[in-house]
Amino acid sequence: MTQISDITTKEEIFAYLVRTFVEEFEIEAHAISLEATLNDDLDIDSIDAVDLMVSLKNHTGKKLDPEVFKKVRTVGDVVDAVFDLVNDQPSR
User: Fold this and answer.
1) Which of 27, 56, 69, 84 is most buried (CB neighbours < 10 A)?
2) What would the DSSP string read from start to end of 15-54?
3) What domains, with CATH codes, occur in the chain?
4) What is the mean pLDDT of each run of 10 residues along the chain (92 residues)?
């Protein structure tokens, strides 16, 4: 599997997240879009969100700031947060 640390574009991060949601959370790929909300559309609860943060840390080698992750609502927000993290950008 491709590591996030090897990914440089938002499109690649989105593709990685789709694979992660399908493989780890058993979400149908067709349900995942940048606009999909984690809670309402994908049924990602707070425990799943923690699992996602751990998975992202394991693949990036970097910890996503919990304050940043609290602000994410959509898959697109996750893409932006991961992009900023792997590219050492300031948090949004």
Assistant:
1) 56
2) HHHHHHHHHHH---GGG--TT-BTTTTT---HHHHHHHHH
3) 4-86 (1.10.1200.10)
4) 63 92 96 97 93 86 86 95 83 54
